[in-house]
Amino acid sequence: QVQLQESGPGLVKPSQTLSLTCTDTGGSITTNRDYWSWIRQPPGKGLEWMGAIAYSGSTYYSPSLKSRTSISRDTSMNQFTLQLSSVTPEDTAMYYCARGAGLGTYYSGSYYYTTRPDFGSWGQGTQVTVSS
Prior knowledge:
Elements: E1 4-7, E2 11-12, E3 18-24, E4 35-41, E5 48-54, E6 59-61, E7 69-74, E8 79-84, E9 93-100, E10 106-107, E11 112-113, E12 121-122, E13 126-130
Parallel strand pairs: 2-13
Antiparallel strand pairs: 1-3, 3-8, 4-5, 4-9, 5-6, 7-8, 9-12, 9-13, 10-11
């Protein structure tokens, strides 16, 4: 059974870098031909797809966040990490990691979004608040 668990600070100050880690206990992140994504949901809004790292190690980013986002992995720990720089209060959201057979994202005309059925497994999410 695939289980994903996010971890990281719940409070980040403006202009700092947010760093979150997702641990996958359901199998190696290199041997399955899946994609591991970071997704966030601001209060009262939909699910915004931020980026992903593939089983091969290739990374993909939402164009609107690409300049501030970095996704990496530690294969020895079966973990992947999100770093979001120069955060503002608008980055306050519930942050999720998810695993799926593809990128599972769509373009609304203003941002890349996703839906829960697009991923086979989701972490429970971690709330991140950006505030001084």
